[in-house]
## 1
Amino acid sequence: MKAVYPSVPPHSHFLARILVFQSLFFGNQAEGTQDELTFLQSSLHVGQSGSGDSNPVSLSGVVDQELANEVEDEDHDTGDPLLAEAISLQAKVKGLEGLMKLRIEDGGVEEYVKSNPDVIKLTKDLEKKLKTLHTKSKEDTMKSWKAVEKCKSKPNVSSADNAFQKEVAGYKKCRTEEQNLEIDVVKNKAEMTSIELERSAKKKMQKVQSKLMVDKKVCKTGFGEDYEMKLERLAKTWDDAYKALAASQIGSKKNDPELAEAKALYKKSIKLHKDKIKACKTTASNMDKAKCALFEIVSKHCATYTKCFHEHKTKFDLLVTTVKQTLALIKAQLNALSKISCYIDSGDNRLKLKECSDNNDEEFEDMNIDFPNPGDGYCEQDSWKPCTTGYLTVYYGGVHKAHLCTPCLGIKGKKSKS
């Protein structure tokens, strides 16, 4: 009865192909039935050994051809060349491992190696390709990481920041001058008021003195004084008192130079203070505009950086996942090749072959790849945008100066939200 075989997965097909080529090299040493060989050969479209339409092939050439076929198939499945190559090399190693185990079972390792010396070269070639794949995986990882790092370039804000700091210094100087002028206003007002109070006090005193210019006692007749002498004395006393009162009133007139100078100085200080307030408003507006320009540069940089970072971080994360899988496959196949080499060196010595099979796998710690952590892509921005509480506190001295602040303009000249 003709055997019916179910469909088998791709890697089983590959192992089956290796077994067929093994049968081509050694005739029918494999214990499969003729029906099984016919099925396997038909799946590969090759003829029996010695047929007219077949050409001599080497084991290395056969497996290389199968590797090319597997790479082409697996690349569509994984979508990644690194992992595809790792899987293909895995299939190749497993195929070679399967052949060696068959030879171990029938006790023909030495004969197999002697008849196929290129199996040693193939083992070394596979090891070399796995190590090359490891190097490429490491290089691709670092290349992808550098792309992430490149996104972290700092914005060129030196010019804008210098302009802002210049305006900050200008506004600070203006505010100091304004405060000094405000002190002058208070001082000049106090001096003017002091003079006015002094003049007012003198006027009141003069009124009192005018009523008390002559003491009543002078009206009494002196000893031995006749009426004529008394009148003459009284006239002189009154004249002296009047002159003294007139002298005391000098400077209390409307054209008092001291008071006029004090009033003029006070008026001038008020004007200077008002002009300085106006100038400081202009300086404050320039400072706010410079800060908005700086804020815009940083905001645009952060938008560009965030887009770049997440784009390359996504690629990096996907690559890391792939490289970790690839690295695991590489280490596993290197351990498998190590056992195959051990089998070859042991020949048909059953004890040594068992030791080869029982050998513990190596960790290959020197092949470990460090995967940096990209972080969350946070882009630091100045939270003290013009007219925010922090900005008013630092640059204006408090929120009570909010009326002096000019917010940043958004799209179409609208005030942006703070």
## 2
Amino acid sequence: MGGWELKLKTWQKTFLSMLCIVGAGCILFNLAFILAYLVHITCGMVMSSLGQRLGNARALYFSWHYVYLFFILLLSWAVFRTRLVT
């Protein structure tokens, strides 16, 4: 049975790889901002409840950057520890 056999040239493979890398990079870039927003909102809710108890938790509110950085480092460590299946 004769089927379509697609032979890609080297420049076509390179171009498709480039498009895939750029596309995945854009998706990961947007996911990082969505994750930052979620961490920001979550820390804001926690700090607002603490602020009512402590009186002034304004300095604590800026600590969401550290929580986000820790979360990104933890995710990066987990990704780099996994092995690729080939």
## 3
Amino acid sequence: MKVVSISFDAGDIVVVSESAEEHGSNKEVEERIPLGEFIRDALLSLPENERGIVISNPAPGEHKIYGIRRNAEGNPEYDYNDEPEP
């Protein structure tokens, strides 16, 4: 199967591919994938140590975290928004 085009339409990823039919002619096939599902599958296809994703859901008054790393001693260090969430 050969991908002809990938586009975005109304919250979906539209993949148009060309597949060979039994009699040698080619037919274009359109597949609609919800954007969230497409992103999830793309992220999950990465090895866990290469994802680099930080999910932060702070309560009001807490700070949103946008980065975590380990220092030379192995202790975690955090990058976070200076302004607490409203």
## 4
Amino acid sequence: MFRVASHCAPCLAFRQPSRCDFKAQGKEQLVTVAEDEDDPGWRFSYRGFTLDSFQKELMKFWNIPEAHLDIKYDKDFPGRTKVHLPKEKTLGALKM
């Protein structure tokens, strides 16, 4: 079971430059990417996602079987909340 904890819902939702963590098994998963670099997690960075769709999209991106991913947020936002990753940040390959 992979446990993903997001401690950045406010900065995701409002693009504020506040502290932002996105961890799986205690390891930070957000990586810095320059504007001219390839972005492996482009679907999360540019297109955005809703909290309801995030688990399914993340399982597909990281190739994790269903029921092996548990996502927890530190704030209680409605599932329809549309979010984007902070500028110059993206998700890369799963680090364990």
